[in-house]
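In the current project phase, the collection of sequences with tokenised folds has grown. One resulting record follows, to show the layout:
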Amino acid sequence: MTDDRKPAGEYAIQGGAAEEHRLAVLAQVMSGATTRLFAEIGVADGWDCLDVGSGGGQVSVALAGLVAPSGSVTGVDTGETTVRHAAAAARELGVENVHFERADAYALPYQDRFDLAYARLLLCYLTEPVAALRQMAAAVRPGGVVAIEDLFTDTLRSEPAVPALDDLRRIYGATVRAHGGDPTIGPRLPTLFRAAGLTDVHASSVVNELRTTDEKGFLVTLVDSMRTATLDAGAASADELDSMKAGIGAAAEDPGCTFYQARMHQVFGTRAST
């Protein structure tokens, strides 16, 4: 049988320094909700954790603090530059119980090794999210936990309303779908977990407010990061992207405008012990 799926690293979002900054801002916005998720799961000293699609390594470093001093974290991503930058950032912070490796979510080189396998904003870009969940389930020990945070793009909004955000929802969604992903995957996660054989599935959701110019500005950078993929997909023209970016940028500079990040679904389940 021919495997036609794309490698897990072929996202609709382009990398680079600006994208690294966007992900760092996003990590800061989501840090409180993610920390509460780990507390609900029971992550503690001594856990060995896997962060799939670790990007700049912000979550990996945060996890490393939760599992110290005797636990460890392995962050994996497909890009050599991404992995190298994440490792350098961890070294600069003096975090010694985290390391980064190259690996594809569809072919994780681990078996029965971790207490937790986690991914954020990864499955929405994959053509076969259940296949990735099965890989994550195989990577944890029997009784181990798989946890995902992913979005439902259609809930992105602002107060007061900004028409450019409506355009972003539509164009981003079309771009991700054109590359085989699902930008509204969040509500589907419990069903996907069960399809992957995970049990005792827990689900909740959170909406994060974006109030500062920097927080709101990560959506401006997103327009640039998705530009090539959007044009390739025919989801928007260059002029439409420029207009949308200008509208989002103006709203980001307005202190009276609050953005509400697309609803983030937090789901975790357990690998059966037998």
Summary: Residues 17-41 form the longest helix (25 residues).
